[in-house]
Amino acid sequence: MKRLLRTLAAGAALSAVAAAPAAASHSWNNYHWARTANPFTLQVGDNVLGDWDTHLRTANGDWSASAVMDTPTVPGTSNRRCSMTAGTAQVCNAKYGNNGWLGLASINLSGSHIMQASAKMNDTYFAGATYNNPNEKLHVMCQEIGHTFGLGHTSEDGSSQNTCMDYFSNTGTAATSTTSTHPNQHDYDQLAAIYSHTDSMSTLASSPATSAGMAGRSDARAYRTQRTDRGNHSEIMEHFSDGTTRITDVLWADGPRPTVDRG
């Protein structure tokens, strides 16, 4: 996959599916977990170490305040590569290398239904002075987890909407600012809108979590990959031979890059 991504043209156009949502509606193209009732429970796998565990629990507590979902933290089932697990969102941190990205959120889809998800924080950059502060860590953690629910960004201009789903950066002169480190009411309202219907089946894991990769699994070949760049974010869509799709939102550490190494 690394070789495939490295052959992509930096300006590859992505269809409207990849367009960043407007502030009035930041659903990520209506991607959602299938479930038969609300509120529902999505297990969030804890694969993080050090102070990331505090940020994960804070973010999960915030997101669980939504009226439609509960996101309990459960023991992780994946490894350093943050392998996805069916019906869950796995969250990881590691030194993934000087590959340009600060955070990644990936969702595997069958149609518009999320089958499994992951969120990764790159300690290669978070260990440095620019990003190593609790406000930036919480902002990125909260945002990457938010993507695994089907939320997009609220803005692209770098201003603070006082939500972790905006493009604000808690670095530099803003390193001590706690703005944009938590969801706001608009995020909860958007989740209520995304999950206003129910489905005839569920893609959520029961307890304990099942352990098979259901979409975009290792034996399914990606036959087409598309990418779009927007400011300090990119979106990559991979189409697999089993009919599923993986979409990855990339948060760059210091501006767009022409390639992505997903670790």
From TrEMBL:
GO molecular-function term, one example from the UniProt record: metallopeptidase activity
Keyword Chaperone on entry: no
Signal peptide limits: 1-18
Keyword set includes Signal: yes
Keywords: Signal
Cited Gene3D superfamilies: Collagenase (Catalytic Domain)
Biased composition range(s): Basic and acidic residues: 218-227
Stretches for region Disordered: 205-227
Residue ranges the record marks as coiled coil: none
Name by which UniProt lists this protein: Peptidase M10 metallopeptidase domain-containing protein
Annotated source species: uncultured Solirubrobacteraceae bacterium
